[in-house]
């Protein structure tokens, strides 16, 4: 800043002067004025603090920049640069007037830094040093408070005390909080009184009434207002809604709607069936309405009660069978209690209630009842047929006491081993029993009333068959005993054991021995090990496969039953060639070598026989491969009589590869009788017809009833003289349509051998679908000409 130079800024009643080192700011805005004194350093920027009562400056607002160097002769030009120097602020280079071209908003930008300079108009040489000044946009109250997190949802327990905090709301004001009261917000409640209140400064919403009851009203919608300018007149405001829900507490006890309930049930009601449902009402919800039920009197043991978790009903369930003749009514005292009791509300009274449920049992005609539901009996497996095993007994529970008849459910005794006496209930054997086949029989005994056979009771009898010693012991497994040729005398070659289907009470005890007929053999002996096993021991060594390959040793086994039973089992011993460790290498017979070699003549004879056999086999195979052409035509060759696919459009007359076109020609055209109509011939006929045209019938000249007969005979004649035809008469070509049609033949295939000049121009009048045919035939010439 050059001392002695004067800059001035003017704007609608505002004049600024700077001179030397002492600066004075003087503002005149309306009726308000104030001055600011400051002492800047040399060449320091000058801070221009322009205050407006309106944040949005109207475009066209003017400030004037003037230098004392400017004599008004136009030699000085004023230049403005910096933030917004071209977009927001402009300067008149002649007069130094500065204009604002846009509205200013402090919330968008609060400061603008500008540089001003006076330069020579011709040379652009500065005549004054560049000076910088800052334009500060002063805030006004043009933004209302806003609740950024609204609307609010909150909950508070019912019956809460006065002043219980519900939620805190907060509003923000975009105005400058450091200037004035534009951003100072106070809160108030517009809707929701007298139930709730809000703190004016903090925005905390609290209950304004104690003991609000959810069962009366469970939701409140509050309207909270936030107003700036500390709530004074002229301030801006914003609102939000707060939805307050009263959450449930357990402050209501359960209550039965009735003090007495009556239900009737049949005495035949199955156990575990539902007898009745009762419910105590609770105005609370959720866990606070959950119930526990219990039977206090006359019901425990016969009935039980549980809680249905979905409906909170008490479900009374039958635990024992009912009997009208024993007891025909029950008076149940039921208590319902809240499962979750809040100690804070115990002072309100008892959280339980009771009611009486009377259950009346109705009499029904019941089936007979067995005195013993399950009867256990035993019988020996050698019991004779018809012997009594035991007795079952049933009675009619009704007062009529009808006579009972018994029978066996044959689904439980399919082979009819037992009978029951219909009147006495005595069970006896009907067939011989075998414990080893079935040791336990489970029978279902039916008891029915004589006067009402529909009433059937069921009892059960378990019959156990006692064992007797009726099965001899046998080998436990099929033994494969191997004996090495180098076995030494006294060597154990096999250990055997036995099994017995019987089951003696004291367990099995088996005795092993060799029968007297083989006891003195020189090869093997048997040693009883006294533990239900026995060992087979060699008596000698030097066993040779060449001498004997297999030895059969009978073994006598005796059990300890009464009477004792025995059986003779044969043990097979195979002689084997073994290695040094006694592991068998090969068993069975040894091939013997001839004492002398075959002569050369014998070998030649054998070789000749083999060659002859080979030649004969080859001839047979070659003859089998020579097959005559099959009489039944192959599918791929008979392309005109085998429909392979539907909805497959052919290529029309232009397609001559799909089938033999000649075979479909008109029957009145000269045909070659040698050619079959069902296949493409590859073998010429050996008996050709004479080619004179007089021998060929002209079908159109024959009567209608003769046409087809002649046609069929012609085909049969072709088949008879054709060696490749099947050995049976068969009409295999279906290209003849007869001569009864007024339009005669509609096929254009006659063009192969005729000079038809029929006019097909009418096809062009049949529409686009016949365009292709019209193009082919429209000129009146044959498509094949």
Structure characterization notes:
One of its GO terms (cellular component) is adherens junction. It is a single-pass type I membrane protein. Helix content is 6%, strand content 34%. Strand 8 and strand 9 (97-100) form a beta hairpin. The two termini are 113 Å apart. By secondary structure, the chain is mainly β. The longest helix is centred in the last third of the chain and has 26 residues, at 600-625. A five-stranded antiparallel β-sheet has the order 4-3-2-1-6, with no helix packed on it. The model is unreliable at 1-60, 631-640, 664-700 and 780-785 (pLDDT under 50). It is built from three helices and 45 strands. The radius of gyration is 62 Å and the shape is extended.
In short:
The protein is about 5% helix and about 35% strand.
- Give the total of beta strands: 45
Low confidence ranges: 1-60, 631-640, 664-700, 780-785
How are the strands ordered across the major sheet?
A: 4-3-2-1-6
- Strand composition percent: 25-35%
Give the class from helix and strand content and strand pairing.
mainly beta
Mean pLDDT: 78
Largest sheet: 5 strands, antiparallel
Query: Which outline best applies?
Result: extended
First and last CA, distance: 113 Å
Number of helices: 3
Kindly provide the radius of gyration, computed on alpha-carbon positions and rounded to a whole number of angstroms: 62 Å
State the share of residues found in helices, binned by percent.
under 10%
Function: Cadherins are calcium-dependent cell adhesion proteins.
Protein name: Cadherin 7
GO molecular function: beta-catenin binding; cadherin binding; calcium ion binding
Subcellular location: Cell junction, Adherens junction; Cell membrane
């Amino acid at each position: 800043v050059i001392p002695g130079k004067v800059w001035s800024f003017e704007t609608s009643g505002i004049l600024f002067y700077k001179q030397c080192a002492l600066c004075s700011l003087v503002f005149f805005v309306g009726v308000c004025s104030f001055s600011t004194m400051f002492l800047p350093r040399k060449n320091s920027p000058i801070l221009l603090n322009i205050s407006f009562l309106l944040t949005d400056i109207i475009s066209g607002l003017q400030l004037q920049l003037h230098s004392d160097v400017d004599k008004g002769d136009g030699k000085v030009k004023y230049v403005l640069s910096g933030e917004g120097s071209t977009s927001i602020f402009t300067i008149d280079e002649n007069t130094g007037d500065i204009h604002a071209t846009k509205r200013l908003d402090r919330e968008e930008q609060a400061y603008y830094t500008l540089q001003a300079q006076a330069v020579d108009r011709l040379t652009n040489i500065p005549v004054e040093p560049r000076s910088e000044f800052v334009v500060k946009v002063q805030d006004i109250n043009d933004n209302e408070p806003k609740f950024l997190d609204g609307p609010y949802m909150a909950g508070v327990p019912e019956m809460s005390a006065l002043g219980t905090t519900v939620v805190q709301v907060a509003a923000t004001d975009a105005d400058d909080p450091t200037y004035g009261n534009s951003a100072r917000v106070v809160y108030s409640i517009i809707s929701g009184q007298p139930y709730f209140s809000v703190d004016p400064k903090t925005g905390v919403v609290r209950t304004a009434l104690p003991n609000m009851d959810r069962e009366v009203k469970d939701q409140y919608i509050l309207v909270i207002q936030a107003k700036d300018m500390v709530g004074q007149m002229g301030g801006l405001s914003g609102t939000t809604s707060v939805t307050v829900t009263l959450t449930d507490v357990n402050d209501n006890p359960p209550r039965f709607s009735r003090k007495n309930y009556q239900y009737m049930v049949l005495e035949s009601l199955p156990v575990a069936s539902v007898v009745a449902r009762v419910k105590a009402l609770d105005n609370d919800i959720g866990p606070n309405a959950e119930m526990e039920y219990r039977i206090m009197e006359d019901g425990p043991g016969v009935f039980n009660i549980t809680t249905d978790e979905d409906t909170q009903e008490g479900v009374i369930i039958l635990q024992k069978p009912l009997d009208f003749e024993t007891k025909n009514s029950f008076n149940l005292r039921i208590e319902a209690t809240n499962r979750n009791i809040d100690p804070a509300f115990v002072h309100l009274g008892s959280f339980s209630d009771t009611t009486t449920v009377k259950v009346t049992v109705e009499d029904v005609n019941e089936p007979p009842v067995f005195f013993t539901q399950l009867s256990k009996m035993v019988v020996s497996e050698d019991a004779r047929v018809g012997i009594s095993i035991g007795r079952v007994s049933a009675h009619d529970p009704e007062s009529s006491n009808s006579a009972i008849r018994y029978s066996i459910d044959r689904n439980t005794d399919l082979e009819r081993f037992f009978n029951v006496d219909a009147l006495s209930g005595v069970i006896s054997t009907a067939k011989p029993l075998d414990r080893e086949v079935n040791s336990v029989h489970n029978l279902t005994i039916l008891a029915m009333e004589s006067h009402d056979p529909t009433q059937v009771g069921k009892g059960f009898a378990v019959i156990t068959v006692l064992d007797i010693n009726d099965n001899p012991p046998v080998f436990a497994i099929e033994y494969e005993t191997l004996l090495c040729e180098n076995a030494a005398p006294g060597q154990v070659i096999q250990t055997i054991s036995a099994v017995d289907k019987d089951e003696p009470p004291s367990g099995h005890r088996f005795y092993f021995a060799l029968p007297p007929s083989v006891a003195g053999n020189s090869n093997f002996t048997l040693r009883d090990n006294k533990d239900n096993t026995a060992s087979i021991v060699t008596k000698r060594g030097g066993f040779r496969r060449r001498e004997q390959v297999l030895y059969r040793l009978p073994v006598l086994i005796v059990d300890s039953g009464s009477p004792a039973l025995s059986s003779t089992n044969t043990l097979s011993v195979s002689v084997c060639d073994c290695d040094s460790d006694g592991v068998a290498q090969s068993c069975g017979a040894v091939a013997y070598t001839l004492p002398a070699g075959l002569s050369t003549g014998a070998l030649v004879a054998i070789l000749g026989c083999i060659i002859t056999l080979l030649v004969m086999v080859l001839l047979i195979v070659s003859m089998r491969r020579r097959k005559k052409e099959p009489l039944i035509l192959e599918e791929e060759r008979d392309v005109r009589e085998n429909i392979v696919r539907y909805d497959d459009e052919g290529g029309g007359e232009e397609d001559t590869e799909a089938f033999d076109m000649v075979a479909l020609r008109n029957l009145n055209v000269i045909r070659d009788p040698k050619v079959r109509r069902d296949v493409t011939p590859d073998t010429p006929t050996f008996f050709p017809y004479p080619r004179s045209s007089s021998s060929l019938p002209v079908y159109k000249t024959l009567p209608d009833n003769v046409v087809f007969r002649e046609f069929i005979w012609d085909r049969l004649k072709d088949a008879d003289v054709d060696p490749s035809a099947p050995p049976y008469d068969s009409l295999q070509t279906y290209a003849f349509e007869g001569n009864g049609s007024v339009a005669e033949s509609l096929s254009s295939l006659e063009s192969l051998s005729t000079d038809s000049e029929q006019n097909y121009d009418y096809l062009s009048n049949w529409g686009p679908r016949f365009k292709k045919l019209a193009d082919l035939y429209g000129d009146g010439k044959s498509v094949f000409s």
